[in-house]
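Exam prep: given the inputs below (a chain plus flavin-adenine dinucleotide), describe the expected output before reading on.
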Amino acid sequence: MKKLIEEQFDVVVIGAGPAGMMAAIRAAQKGARVALVDKKEEPGKKLLMAGGGRCNMTQDENNIVELSNLYKNGRFLLSAFGAFRPGNVREFFEGHGVPTKVEKSGRVFPVSDKGQDVLEALIKAAKENGITFLYKAHVVDFSLNSENEIVKIKLKKRELYPKNVIIATGGMSYPATGSMGDGYAWAEKMGHKIIEPKPVLVPIKTTDDWVGELQGVSVSSVSISVFQHNKKQFSDSGDLMFAHFGLSGPLALNMSRGIGKVLAKDESDIKLVIDLKPYLSAEQLDEIVRKDFERNADKKLNNCLADVFSPKLLDFLFRYSGLDLEKHAAKISRKERMHLVNLFKHLEMNLDSLFGFDRAMVTSGGVSTKEIDSKTMKSRIVKNLFFAGEVLDADGPTGGYNLQLCWSTGFLAGESAAKNL
Ligand SMILES: Cc1cc2nc3c(=O)[nH]c(=O)nc-3n(C[C@H](O)[C@H](O)[C@H](O)COP(=O)(O)OP(=O)(O)OC[C@H]3O[C@@H](n4cnc5c(N)ncnc54)[C@H](O)[C@@H]3O)c2cc1C
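Solution:
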């Protein structure tokens, strides 16, 4: 069949998410003729969901070794982070009219709090660099020649003839955004190993009936320890939100990564013990409670400790403690006080399960990093194939880390593909 000139590209990027858009922009900046292909009718559907629509675009961390330590397969990501650091990401967006700001825990957002601005900056940069956008363009298969090079990309309604291909089709969560794991099947067919994709950064379901009473309560800087058969597995700290089903918020999402590993070995008898005041020892907390009771000696128990916890949480904790709430603070015994302090430091919950792909922010697993050159993002198996973004077997915690992975691997894949001409 005759190849039409408009169907020949130096670089075809499949997937117009953050990784694919950055890859396309960088390849075009380096002089390549680039097509950006996506099966949806518009780009960046998942990007618009990021950070609840505010887009936590990266982290305020430029030490790439520290950064990489927080990721699965972080060592593999080092070169990509070196090529395009969090600081470069901020420079890129600021240079395209999106000023950025740093919030708690180093989370970087656009000053406007609008993820839409981030997406529009990418689209503008792509257009400025002459990238051809092909939407509603569903890639289904590839043809390779005897040299193990992709010579043709088969879409549902047309064919493209690429010199290089970048697969940036994302993971498997929130499939309505277009990420349905298509890239894994292609990579596997072309000889790549796929590490089983699993949902990560998911909320946690617990079996405790009372958790619904705390729905919507947020607590900052608490810690949770995970126990199985009464043996401590690991712990972490951060900001938590109670939901009607159990736990959400950054701490729960991050801990789901570790809990998933514990569950993979044994699903039984897992407890989560929340320390609501991890920065105070039991003695220090008791001292605070004792002084509060002294000051409020004439008040009933449920009118005390207003400075220690928010009203809804406090109300729950008092009721859960089983103590007589009508009792005046002066009458609370040391034993009763210690019972309260113990509850504040050991609020116990029982794990039910983790949510699945329908609620996962990220997919862990994907195209094995062993068969990809970390310095270029190029396949070690197919000569003109590159990977970028969540399709790779690499993932990080919440806080802008997963988008940073997309920007960095996208940038490096785009640059390398443009050089591979
Ligand atoms: C609710 C939510 C909130 C999040 N918040 C944050 C956050 O604040 N900060 C952060 O760092 N990360 C966040 N993440 C994670 C982050 O959004 C993802 O890691 C990131 O979008 C992955 O980018 P990607 O480019 O690899 O893939 P995707 O964004 O998934 O894009 C893949 C693209 O490939 C296209 N595609 C797939 N198959 C085909 C095919 N066969 N043919 C053509 N096109 C195809 C899809 O249509 C899609 O557009 C969040 C995720 C979710 C779900």
